UniProtKB/TrEMBL annotation:
InterPro entries recorded: FliR, T3SS_IM_R
Function of the molecule: Role in flagellar biosynthesis.
TM segment ranges: 12-34, 40-58, 70-93, 99-117, 129-148, 180-202, 214-238
Keywords recorded for this protein, A-Z: Bacterial flagellum, Cell membrane, Cell projection, Cilium, Flagellum, Membrane, Transmembrane, Transmembrane helix
GO terms for biological process, alphabetical: bacterial-type flagellum assembly; protein targeting
Name this protein carries in UniProt: Flagellar biosynthetic protein FliR
Family per record: Belongs to the FliR/MopE/SpaR family.
Principal location class: membrane
Gene Ontology, cellular component aspect: bacterial-type flagellum basal body; plasma membrane
């Protein structure tokens, strides 16, 4: 009869609980898994399935007591690492939302706001439309599988240890915040440029014919031009999104401090 002692049982639980904590930290934050519309049981079940796959491949840490201060610190560290990786994905979607906000405000649709279940705040209709398109593109290109692959690989580049250091460069995480503005500008630039030319043309028209009511004709013209440009941009949106997703995966893989500190710029 096989007998398992208390210490062996705690070691087995710890070997499963620590990677599960990092995985759940990632799933809670990273879209589309972190969406509030996803049931908590689905998130936990997905995390448990991934942890069952990852845990047997990790080196055991039998000298660390799970219920000790060191074990609790390791647990917190793994949760913070998972949150940081998920936060990098969330920043990309924040850039997509910013692109929709800028395009919507330029079109004159700043008042057309709706409740966003992702952030539990208010966002414009254009922002929600672009986020839906981005989410569908992410799933269609199997980027969610690549994200899980990067998460599993992180256990090699950022191993579970008792060191006080988190194992990743916090400077890279801070610098990654600039992607909000880079992605927002990249995706909204065609629409903003077209509307800028439209507003210049309306200004010249108003100076040439002062009797025209600029508020009566300008608003429907800018909205029409904005939607036309949005329809023209959509077929070509897949390439920049693919480059953005590739850049995001590379940044997640390079979070370890043992890798080069320079993050490649978006194309």
């Amino acid at each position: 009869m096989i007998s398992i002692g208390t210490q062996e049982l705690l070691s087995i639980i710890a070997a499963f609980l620590w990677p599960l904590t990092r995985i759940l930290g990632f799933i809670v934050v990273a879209p589309p898994f972190g969406n509030n519309g996803v049931p908590p049981l689905v998130k936990i079940g997905l995390g448990v399935m991934l942890a069952l796959i990852v845990a047997p491949t990790l080196e055991p840490m039998s000298n660390v007591d799970m219920v000790s201060i060191t074990g609790i610190m390791v647990l917190i560290q793994q949760f913070v690492v998972g949150l940081a990786m998920g936060f990098m994905v969330r920043i990309i979607f924040a850039g997509i939302e910013m692109a929709g906000e800028v395009a919507g405000l330029t079109m004159g649709l700043g008042f057309a706001t709706f409740f966003d279940p992702q952030t539990r705040g208010r966002s414009t209709a254009i922002s929600q439309f672009l986020v839906i398109i981005t989410t569908l593109a992410l799933l269609a290109m199997n980027v969610h599988l690549t994200m899980f692959e990067a998460l599993v690989t992180s256990f090699k580049t950022i191993p579970i240890s008792t060191s006080l250091e988190m194992g990743f460069s916090s400077q890279k995480l801070v610098i990654w915040g600039q992607e909000i503005f880079k992605v927002g500008m990249l995706l909204s630039l065609p629409i903003v440029a077209a509307l800028l030319i439209t507003n210049i043309a309306l200004g010249i028209l108003t100076r040439a014919a002062p009797q025209l009511n600029i508020f009566g004709i300008g608003f429907p013209i800018t909205i029409t031009v904005g939607f036309v440009m949005l329809g023209l941009v959509l077929p070509y949106l897949i390439l920049p999104l693919e480059n953005i997703f590739r850049h995001m995966i590379d940044a997640i893989n390079s979070m370890g401090q043992n890798l080069p500190s320079k993050i490649p710029t978006s194309p």
